[in-house]
Amino acid sequence: MKVRNLVLSVSMACTALSGALVSTAAMAQAKEQFFPLLSYRTGPYAPNGTPWANGKQDYLKMINARDGGINGVKITYEECDRICHRPWRGMLRAPEEPPGRDTV
């Protein structure tokens, strides 16, 4: 019986300690969240893509201005029209470009 009580108390202590560590890590997160704005402003989809991209960008600006972001986390964004040429492209794990394609 003593062994059972010892194991139970040790497991409860470990649970409490891990909960304290998790909450500390959550508080150390950045206060902004990045969203790429994947849009179609050129080509055959431009008549529908341009108003949609404008609306999404306005909505993200409104959320930052009116609500201070989402739960206090500001939204940052950058627009990308079809082919992304930005440093954050690697974070999206996009497929590699076909050989011979110009990716200026």
What's the structural blueprint in terms of helices and strands?
Layout: H1 2-27, E1 32-39, H2 46-67, E2 74-81
Parallel strand pairs: 1-2
Radius of gyration: 23 Å
Q: Strand portion, in percent?
A: 15-25%
Q: Name the average pLDDT.
A: 74
SSE order: HEHE
Number of helices: 2
- Work out the count of structural domains: 2
Principal-axes geometry comes out as elongated
Give the strand tally.
2
Quick synopsis:
The protein is built from 2 helices and 2 strands, in the order H-E-H-E. The chain has helices at 2-27, 46-67, and strands at residues 32-39, 74-81.
Protein architecture, described:
46% of the residues lie in helices and 15% in strands. The protein has helices at residues 2-27, 46-67, and strands spanning 32-39, 74-81. It has 104 residues and is an alpha+beta fold. The model has no long low-confidence stretch (mean pLDDT 74). It contains 2 helices and 2 strands; from the N terminus they run αβαβ. The protein folds into 2 domains: 1-29; 31-94, no CATH class.
Q: What key attributes describe this structure?
A:
alpha+beta; 2 domains; two-stranded parallel ribbon; about 100 residues; elongated; about 15% strand; about 45% helix
